[in-house]
Amino acid sequence: MVPGAFVLEIAGAAQSHVDLAHPEQIFYEYLRRIGNLLDVFRPAAEPVRALHLGAGALTLVRYLAVRRPGSEQTAVELERELLDFVLNSLPLPPGTRLRNIIGDARWSLPEAARTGPFDAIVLDIFSGPQAPEHIASVDFYTEAARLLTPDGVLIVNVGDEAALTLVRSQCAALRSVLPATVLWAESGMFSGRYPGNMILAGVKAHAWPPDWTEQLLALGPHPSRLLSGLELDEFSR
């Protein structure tokens, strides 16, 4: 164990990792991918407005606070006790600008909208068949997309079982709202033989920037694939 680093476990399952001395260090692969996307989608160090739906140990809040100082962030968490525990046990980096909302990710969107529009919205709630139906829906993505800036990005971590049924359904749902959507993950995940996490990201602009793809594939973690356009059509069928 690295001194000053902590793992948040919920019901015996590791959920988040935090390095208090180095918040820019992200241990879990799927969070590292989201962090890399949050690095490339705006010029380096430029402050952004971000909405986090599902707070966990606030790993990405900490990341943005040090990588993009001055960022205005809002976190929505269903469990007050979890958020209180995290804030009391794992202090945020100095200068973090964070507003917390206790509530359901979808029903809290009107309250969250008061601090928007957002350059980035990160949804980290889904876990296979347990995905809440009122969030895993076109209506939810439609409501969330309204809170984005004209060139904002909606990022979704989808934890799924080997068949990737949830990934495919959420890919279709997000693309119906934000057609410029990509799917990014460890290369082996696309075989449909393993459970794991895959990252969906959709931009409100008309097209996904090709240079983002190049940068993300270079940044890793490796090996990885990023599907868009016709490749994503084939995968989603």
List the helices and strands and how they pair.
Blueprint: E1 5-10, E2 13-19, H1 29-40, E3 49-53, H2 59-67, E4 72-77, H3 80-89, E5 97-102, H4 109-112, E6 118-127, H5 138-145, E7 148-160, H6 165-177, E8 180-186, E9 196-203, H7 210-219, E10 224-227, H8 229-236
Parallel strand pairs: 3-4, 3-6, 4-5, 6-7
Antiparallel strand pairs: 1-2, 7-9, 8-9, 8-10
Helix pairs in contact: 1-2, 1-7, 5-6
How is the quaternary structure best described?
Answer: single chain
Uncertain regions: pLDDT < 50 for 5+ in a row?
Answer: none
What helical percentage do the residues reach?
25-40%
Which strand order does the major sheet show? 5-4-3-6-7-9-8-10
Strand content: 25-35%
Query: How many individual helices?
Result: 8
Query: What is the CA-atom radius of gyration, in angstroms?
Result: 17 Å
End-to-end gap: 42 Å
Main sheet attributes: strand count, strand direction, barrel closure: 8 strands, mixed
Structural class comes to alpha/beta
Overall body shape: globular
Number of strands: 10
N-to-C SSE string, H for helix and E for strand: EEHEHEHEHEHEHEEHEH
What is the residue-mean pLDDT, rounded to a whole number?
Answer: 94
